[in-house]
Amino acid sequence: MAKILEHNPFQDLLSKQGIAPLEAMAWTKQNAQSIRISLPKESDPNENRISLSPQAVALLTNNGHEIVIEKGAGERAGFSDSDYLLAGASVSEDVAMIWQSTLTLKITPPTISEIARMKEGQAFISSASYQHLSSELIDAMNAKKLLAIGLEFVEDNGGGFPFIKIMAEIAGQLILPIATDLIQKKKGLLLGHVTGVPPCNLVLLGSGQVVEQVARAAASAGIQFQVFDKDIYKLQRLKAALGFPIVTQVIDSENLAKALQEAQIIVGALRSDSGITPCIVTEEMVSKLKPGTLILDVCIDQGGCFETSEPCTIQKPTFEKYGITHFCVPNIPSLVAHTASLAMSNLMTSFILKAGKTGGVEEMLWQGKSFMKGVFCYRGFVTQPSTGKLFHKPVKDIQLLLLSKS
């Protein structure tokens, strides 16, 4: 693996300005590595995002990294091949070569056929969602001894989940426009702000980033809503974040069934650290809802919190059961792929720059413990407890595996 040129005027400038000590710069010069990164085209026709924008590619190539992108990989996100070429990347139709890079960046996990093209010990970063992984896929990754980092598991220095948070922020802003469009077409309803006409009744399940965005939009549109969650602390956090009065209740309350029956729109946005969302609304409860009620299950990628939920696609986003419209698209941010790609790219770029400075992806796992927590497969072992539990695989501690290798 080629090293970045030892003399870097920018590093010297940082040292002179006191931004970084000379000792740290000397260490960086000695250990920094150029990383060859590939971005293959997404095989899933419902996935429009890409992990790096042309602006991010320009920054990475200027820092000595090599980027190769499969022809047309960014088109669905609004980025042309010429945009990437101007940014310093290589654009290729050689699929075999693209899958042989040190680090591969994807949105959805690689398929078994794509894993077969990868070299042993290769690293990749992708989602690790419940709906995309399988026991066979995990076995294929481990047979190749791949280093697999799941975006959902990566933590920031504060213990939050930055990739989940930024995608939830985008999804939350899209939910109300989606609901407005669907309920206007189905029932001819305007959600609120009409003098003398009662607004639509909205129930929100969960109190995370998605619900926070929906609540802000709903309050601005004059829509009545209630928020249910099992965790009082999370409800308190939501109230403090919003800064205006809202109606909150615990999910265990008997008032949930009544609230659901009175609602015209129900948004499920509960997430679970175990990888599977608890089913809060049973099929019987759904069958008792008013005909024409709209359900939007935002946590369908973790199984969904409605017993009647089934994964949909961007091309066919809804289905009906018991006269209830279900919207269950797992990758809602893909509807605004350009914005979502820019947001994801900001986070991804930071990781790659740190990985290059510290000596590569594996060394970065030691230097940045947040990305170590994102590893779900490492050199033949499952390292993420929730993934192991979900697919009945034995789990090894990632830190012990890294120690044994060193």
Automatic annotation (TrEMBL):
<dbReference type="InterPro" id="IPR036291">
    <property type="entry name" value="NAD(P)-bd_dom_sf"/>
</dbReference>
<dbReference type="Pfam" id="PF05222">
    <property type="entry name" value="AlaDh_PNT_N"/>
</dbReference>
<dbReference type="InterPro" id="IPR008141">
    <property type="entry name" value="Ala_DH"/>
</dbReference>
<protein>
    <recommendedName>
        <fullName>alanine dehydrogenase</fullName>
        <ecNumber>1.4.1.1</ecNumber>
    </recommendedName>
</protein>
<dbReference type="InterPro" id="IPR007886">
    <property type="entry name" value="AlaDH/PNT_N"/>
</dbReference>
<dbReference type="InterPro" id="IPR007698">
    <property type="entry name" value="AlaDH/PNT_NAD(H)-bd"/>
</dbReference>
<dbReference type="Pfam" id="PF01262">
    <property type="entry name" value="AlaDh_PNT_C"/>
</dbReference>
<comment type="similarity">
    <text>Belongs to the AlaDH/PNT family.</text>
</comment>
<feature type="domain" description="Alanine dehydrogenase/pyridine nucleotide transhydrogenase N-terminal">
    <location>
        <begin position="38"/>
        <end position="171"/>
    </location>
</feature>
<feature type="domain" description="Alanine dehydrogenase/pyridine nucleotide transhydrogenase NAD(H)-binding">
    <location>
        <begin position="180"/>
        <end position="328"/>
    </location>
</feature>
<keyword id="KW-0560">Oxidoreductase</keyword>
